[in-house]
Structure formats: structure tokens, C-alpha cells
Design goal:
Length: 378
């Protein structure tokens, strides 16, 4: 292997990191199973095959192509697996074949649904929608942080802040030494048992102080508090500790205004051609004018109703339950069902395009065996 080839070698771990930059695992629904599902994180990855589902034909294709990793949008390991036997009739046998052939498995599913530029945004782009808003926001588990607020004499601010930073405080994303400082006035009355660093005991004092704030991981809280106490000139420094809740992040689904109003039939035809859909269904009259799209790939369920569906709205999804279709119709809305697999398949091309930049030199292939399970009656 040449030196240039070795420099472009990637691992399963590298692939996971690159995918997490595209669709953070933390964005997935709590019930989902995403990320590296099987494989050696240190194993080399030269060829990756991309598919929606792990099927016998997709598995055979991955083995034939000598893929090192198989990206399956739908997680092939979803429920707990009690046995992993080659002769099993379920998907477990396919997982066994991949493991035996040293093919790692990765899934992103609802993490990719919620990601910026993910599955729903790709369909929005096919509709000509340039800007979307999330249909829902969800609580994303994040690092358990606290905010420390300490009141400091102005001339000691930098010393105390530096001590806290050295103990692990003040990190926000890729930034370090983050703090906020506000001028104010502190007051105290030192009793007979005190030894004030500023002013005198037995006298009511006013001191120019700075309110110093910074975040710190909860796990490093004892070290940071001790660093603040040690660096602080007061024998009894005043400070507060507040727990922080991670900001909500975008969830599944998106909403966007169509660039110009169109008919249900026109948009359905446009999406059918763009996705090569074989079985497109619509809810509503073909000539209905639509202005806004509510997009939830796969199975929409009741999620679109959070957007307050009504006249001029079209729900674009993969499959729709009978009674949800009736509810859309009662609300005066329309809907387009492209097929579950078909509505999700376009994201694979978008992911490959992004990974070609993140993993230069990797051979990224779109599966030819992956297909829509439903066929049109001729």
C-alpha cells in the first residue's frame, strides 16, 4: 500500500464521527437504536454500501462488493437479540452474515430525520422549499452542566476566573475561557468572628464587585468550587450554583412554504418523478391549491397535526393510516404518500455527498439491491 493510500485510510470510528457531524446520535428518538450497531471501531473502512433496509439481497451485495461497512437507514438491530444464529429466519441471520464477513453496521434513522438537511429537508428541497422550520422540538440529552455565579472584588476577577478555567470551567462548544462579568455593589457587615479582606469588622461596608459567571460540567463541580474558594480573597465568598437544562433541539418533521402555490396533482407528479415512486397515493382532490407542506418521511402518524393542518396544507410522507387520511380530509388538508421506502431513499445520496468530503478516498456506493418492497400491479 502506498503512503498516500495509507493517509486516506479510515476506520469505523472515523465513519461514526463523520456521520455524527451530519446527524447527531443525540437527535434520535428515545425509542430508536442508532449509531454503530455492530463492528470493530478500529477496523479499516475502505468501501461503504448505503441502503434503507438490511435485506437478503442487500447483504449479499455487501459481501460480493467486499464492503467494510453497511449503512442501513432503518436499524437492523432494534429489539434485543437473544440469539445470533445463521439459520434464523429473521433479520438476525443477516446481522450474523455481516459480522462473519467483517462488515460493520451503522444506522441513523430518526437522528437523520431530525438533522438539519436530513431526510425531511431533502424532500422539502424536491418541493422547491428553500427554508423549513422544525415540526417539533425535543429535549436532547446533553452534557450535565451547571452555572456558577461568584461575586468578586474587581481587582481579583482575572485571578479567580483563571483558576476556575484551569479546573475545567468555562467551556462552551469549541470555545474555552468563557465567562460573563457584570459590575455591581456588594455589601456586608462583619461580626466579631470575622476577618474581612476588605473593610473592617463591626462596620457596614459597600464594595465594588463583579458578578462573574461561567459554566462547568457537573462532574467537575467540586474541583471548580475549590479552585474558586482558594483563589478568592474573602474568607466566605458568595456564590450560587444553578443546574442547566440543555436547549431543545429540532425533532422529526419539518414545515415550509411552497415557493409558489400549486395543485396537489402537480406536486404529486413532481415528487413521483423526482423519487421514482412506483405507488403514489393522494388524499384530497387533484385540483386543490396548496401553499404549505408538512413533511414527515416514513410513516407520519399523528405528528403532522401538531402543525395545525388545514386548508392549503399538504402532508408529504411515506404512508398514511386510513383514519389519519380521513382526519386530514375533515380538516380541509391534502396529503401525498410516496411509499415508506421511497420517501426515505433520497437521503442516501445526500449523505454520500457529504461523506465524500469528510472521508476523502473512501469508496461510497449506493446499493442497487435495496428496493421498494411494494410493486405496482401491471
Amino acid at each position: 500500500m502506498s503512503k498516500s493510500s495509507r493517509s486516506r485510510s479510515h476506520t469505523v470510528s472515523d465513519f461514526s464521527v463523520a456521520m455524527n457531524a451530519i446527524a447527531q446520535v443525540a437527535l434520535a428518538q428515545k425509542w430508536d437504536n442508532v449509531g454503530v450497531l455492530a463492528g470493530d471501531l478500529s477496523a479499516h473502512v475502505r468501501r461503504v454500501l448505503f441502503a434503507i433496509d438490511l435485506t437478503p439481497t442487500v447483504t449479499a451485495e455487501a459481501i460480493r462488493l467486499r464492503a467494510d461497512l453497511l449503512f442501513c437507514y432503518h436499524p437492523p438491530i432494534f429489539q434485543p437479540i437473544k440469539t445470533l444464529v445463521a439459520q434464523n429466519a429473521g433479520v438476525e441471520s443477516l446481522v450474523f452474515q455481516c459480522v462473519r464477513s467483517n462488515i460493520a453496521l451503522y444506522s441513523s434513522h430518526t437522528a437523520l430525520d431530525a438533522a438539519d438537511g436530513g431526510t425531511n429537508d431533502v424532500i422539502a428541497g424536491l418541493c422547491g422549499i428553500a427554508k423549513t422550520n422544525p415540526l417539533e422540538f425535543v429535549d436532547t440529552p446533553g452534557e450535565d452542566n451547571c452555572k456558577i455565579v461568584v461575586f468578586v472584588p474587581r481587582e481579583h476577577v482575572d485571578r479567580i476566573a483563571d483558576a476556575a478555567f484551569a479546573a475545567g470551567a468555562g467551556v462552551i462548544g469549541n470555545y474555552t475561557h468563557c465567562s460573563y462579568r457584570t459590575d455591581g455593589t456588594g455589601t456586608f457587615f462583619g461580626t466579631s468572628g470575622t476577618n474581612p479582606a476588605i473593610g473592617k469588622r463591626g462596620r457596614f461596608e459597600h464594595v465594588d464587585e463583579v458578578r462573574l459567571e461561567f459554566v462547568t460540567p457537573r462532574g467537575q463541580l467540586p474541583e471548580v468550587v475549590q479552585a474558586v474558594r482558594t483563589a478568592h480573597p474573602y474568607d466566605e465568598p458568595a456564590f450560587d450554583i444553578f443546574p442547566l437544562t440543555p436547549a431543545p433541539s429540532r425533532g422529526i418533521g419539518c414545515v415550509g412554504e411552497l415557493p409558489k402555490q400549486t395543485t396537489l396533482a402537480t406536486l404529486a407528479q413532481r415528487l413521483s418523478e423526482a423519487t421514482k415512486a412506483t405507488n403514489v397515493s393522494i388524499v384530497g382532490r387533484s385540483a386543490t391549491i396548496i401553499k404549505r407542506a408538512i413533511i414527515v418521511v416514513g410513516a407520519a402518524g399523528r405528528l403532522p397535526f401538531r402543525a395545525g393542518v388545514g386548508a392549503g396544507d399538504v402532508v408529504i410522507t411515506g404512508e398514511i393510516r386510513h383514519h389519519d387520511a380521513l382526519a386530514f380530509d375533515r380538516a380541509g388538508a391534502t396529503a401525498i404518500a410516496l411509499g415508506h421506502w421511497t420517501s426515505e431513499r433520497p437521503i442516501l445520496t445526500a449523505v454520500i455527498r457529504k461523506l465524500k468530503v469528510a472521508l476523502p478516498g473512501a469508496d461510497l456506493k449506493l446499493s442497487r439491491a435495496d428496493r421498494e418492497p411494494f410493486a405496482r400491479v401491471k
